[in-house]
User: What shape does this take?
Amino acid sequence: MILSRRALESPQSGIRKMFGLAAKMTDLANLGIGEPDFATPPEIVEAAVRALREGATKYTSNAGIPPLREVIMEKLSRENNLPGTPDNVIVTAGACEALILCLMAVTDPGDEVIIPDPCWSNYMGEIHLAGGKAVPARTYKEDRFHLKASTVKSLLTERTKVLFLNTPSNPTGAVLNEADLKELAALAVAHDLTVVSDEPYEKLVYDGRRHISIGSLPGMAERTLTVNSFSKAFAMTGWRVGYVHGPEEVVAAMVKLHESFSSCVNSAAQFASIEAMQAGAAATAAMVESYRKRRDLLVEGLNTIPGVECLLPEGAFYAFPDFSSFGKSSADMALDLLTQAKVVAVPGDAFGDAGEGFLRMCYAASEETLEKAVDRIRKYLAGR
Assistant: This one.
């Protein structure tokens, strides 16, 4: 059978490649996988069980069940200052499907999509599948990896259609502040850009920082697609429930496209997501405080290792330490740590060229695992 060019040319995730190698090994300190290590709160699980017992086993609307869209819109209005009604919301099979639906709804083949560099590697694959061209906008350690409007402006062409934002950031932990977002918003308005703002880590911010949705800024609601999910805030990665908020006509187009993707999201998971919205805040707050403590433990430990430098992440649950002083590529360093120290980390170049020299380490792991990882890295580097 002959494979399509689309399949052959679709970029492979460097994250999955590392996981494939790690799967063959034992006794690992695994800081690779980017998901909560908490179980889904029991009240959310019970809501799904209750829904199944009450007959929630059928197809739902392509847009999502009305009660869930209503509570999502209430949340977005209350917490994110985003305007609208449930008709401005579509429920999707996680944020991953949400992103490809956004691209399919607002881009044509050959359109350029500016993405932060480094960024979540799936952006490149999804832009490729939609027929677009990914244009990396480099960010720098010296700026704490905050995307600058001046960088974006320098990349604009007549084919530029969309700007992707991710705050808090995977992999860097950067949280764009109000000044950053105002400058990016002004640029989007001036050049008629659509902004896809990917915000699944919005609850995971630290040290008094505040998450701001760019769609809440003047002139932005009509040009912003805000993407979110239940995966990170409520430890529901396997439930696959996400959503998009945007202009009604764009959401309507996404609903039409959704029928050809997954049709609808698992019905019981949608009912569980209502419970998450209504009763999950306390569990989320406890998770965030635990992540903050683990962040401090990992970053302090890494910064005691000669030659390693690590910024204190502002959000999400990833550290992005700089290993460039050792003269190895990030891929080689990650492979050495895996095979020689039994520590799983993701090479920074999996997230773009600007990630070269860095490694992504997820601190959604036990304190014991974090301490073991730091100790093993220290011993390996000392013995090189």
